[in-house]
Design a protein that fits this description.
Blueprint lengths: L1 H9 L5 E4 L9 E2 L3 E6 L6 E4 L2 E3 L2 E5 L9 E7 L5 E14 L6 E6 L4 H17 L6
Antiparallel strand pairs: 1-8, 2-5, 3-4, 3-7, 5-6, 6-9, 7-8, 8-9
């Protein structure tokens, strides 16, 4: 299946500029959670949503620019309305040249204690709600 995807891109049907590693270390789960995010180069926090979530990070769809390895602060709003503050680094930039989703791949800094448990609970809930795609 991946070979078809790469072949499709080589034909020029999905041109995009991608910066950062493309290898997947953790399963990414579709999950739209409201959040506030601020990269170190941004003046203020911006209201955004997560696009997907994994054990060590998340994807944030946005048209805002950022740099690889830039520090980012994120305040995630959980389904119960509680807030979870996390920090991390921008490790992936998705910038399609045509129509398509732009955004930031964020690798979270190591979470400890209650914050780690709360984030893991968000990932577990996303996994429960995820509908497997047919092959």
């Amino acid at each position: 299946m991946l070979s078809k995807l790469f072949r499709w891109r080589r034909k020029g049907k999905a041109a995009e500029e991608v910066q950062g590693p493309r290898r997947r270390q953790d399963l990414r789960l579709p999950c739209e959670l409201p959040l506030q995010a601020k990269c170190s180069s941004w003046d203020t926090f911006h209201a955004l949503f997560s696009g997907n979530i994994s054990a060590r990070g998340l994807f944030i769809p946005t048209d805002r620019d950022a740099e690889l390895q830039e520090a980012i602060s994120v305040e995630i709003t959980a389904p119960d309305g509680s807030k979870l503050e996390v920090t991390g680094r921008v490790v992936h930039l998705l910038r399609p040249t045509g129509p398509g989703q732009r955004g930031l791949g964020v690798r979270l800094d190591e979470l400890q204690g209650a914050e780690r448990e709360r984030y893991q609970a968000l990932v577990a809930e996303a996994a429960r709600q995820c509908v497997p795609r047919p092959r």
